[in-house]
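User: Predict Binding-protein-dependent transport systems inner membrane component's structure from this.
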Amino acid sequence: MTATTTTRRAHGATQGDATPTASGRGRAPRSGWGGLGWTVAVALPLAFLLVFFAYPVATMVGRGFVVDGRLDLSGFADVFGRPRTWRIIGQTLAQAGVATTVSVLLGVPGAYVLHRHRFPGRAAVRALVTVPFVLPTVVVGVAFRSLLVEGGPLGFLHLDGTFVAIVAALVFFNYAVVVRGVGGLWERLDPRAEQAARALGATPWRAFRTVTLPALTPAIASAASLAFLFCATAFGTVLVLGGLRFGTVETEIWVQTTQFLDLRAAAVLSVVQLVVVGAALTVAGRARGRRERALHLAEPELVVRPLRLRRPAGTPRHDGHALLLAATGVTALVVVLLALPLVNLVVRSLRVGDGWGLDHYRALGTVGGGVTVTVWQAALTSLRTAVDATVLALVVGGLVALVVSRRPRRPAARRAVAGLDALFMLPLGVSAVTVGFGFLLAMHEPLGLPLDLRRSPLLVPVAQAVVAVPLVVRTVLPVLRAIDPRLREAAATLGAAPGRVLRTVDLALAARSIGLAAGFAFAASLGEFGATSFLARPENPTLPVVVFRLIGRPGPESYGMALAASVVLAALTAAVVALCERLRRTGDGGEW
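Assistant:
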């Protein structure tokens, strides 16, 4: 049975089989949960966000602004009076702005090739493009350092520790954000408007510029806003590649917190970052809303097999293959550049002195120096932690997506739903350092309770779940919003209880996207470093923490172990992403 047939039958059921009322008129019964169910669906995620995000962040910021029990905002004047602060803010905006621009310029052709055309190996290329987005930031920093350092394949360029190296690494991360954000819409865009322009004599470039590009503008704006947000809040990559010379607001919060113990400066910078994040999320939200309201989506078959219209007699022939060839060439070059750091990482991990071998991988089973566990033990800890974080993120994010997917009729209710959506995007942009250090400050007797949760093994997965929840929401929400409400009404009309309607309609149609969300949440949790670096116990560090410790140890043996451990972590992440890509089908996957 096709989706169209199902929708028609559902529509017929709601129109013709409605339960009669006492007045003799038909009425479609209300579908969905009862009032208690929806209350729980809203209250549980809000409580999670309040306790494990808002409370730690407020505690961290409050320590910087409360002196002797009184509010003291003089820190703003002090911090903004430092030339260092303005240099850090300028570097953050410059790095994020340049990296976002390059990501969009390269990502739009990639979206066209990977989402509008079918070719052998497309799924593998999509997975390769997505891997950098979920790779641990520490791994990316190590991969680029091994590529650019003196003696590396690109060492002759002398880019190690430069602005260009940081921008390249940020583009490496965020290329997939643009490709998926724009391509996910492009593959569902009705092609007939562009075909009509071509039939009237427009060149392929003009048809794209005047018809397709305006339709894609909301998606491009949304992807660019998210890319800017991720670039402005990058931590591990900038810390490894730029150090203190090219620090950003994110790394400066870490420096002020851990090295100078200046919580007031860290609090001021956290507020600055929150303002930037709020602006980026506002732009992304509005662009996403315009995209959902204004664009007419087509069946996937119309996209992959577009109609071939004849050009009018006398119209000069403009071959569209040149546009496709140019986009394919750019995409192929970008894919090679994306693969280069990963391939070099593997090659360098096998380099032992003047020869080759597996010595660095054998050393992963040993301990020493600043590392108290083996890499394999840390990998097992990371896997267990990621499983716990994924379960939490799916429960909380799934409930948020379910609530936000509804379209209430009252304006006040619609604004409340939109506000809930925006609230759960904040963890993507707020400093992971602020969250992690806030956990240390807030989880000692939290909310006045006689408990010390800082030693709890659940603290790390909870912190990772806070970061993963927005990914779950953005992956599942578009699929739930695309469900025709008449399907729920038909199921309720035929006697299904609210829980059964939810199970047989919403969960059944969103099952693949939920699996996709679980994969992305697992990969993101596996590589989370910012908050975990504060919370992981010395006897139970995660794999990204161990990699960072190995980098800080002197000697080629430690560096070789760091390379090998990074390969292990990258392989685990790539395997998860490849599985996600197999779960994905055309039009699924939301914004990722």
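The domain at 31-68+359-592 is CATH 1.10.3720.10 (MetI-like fold).
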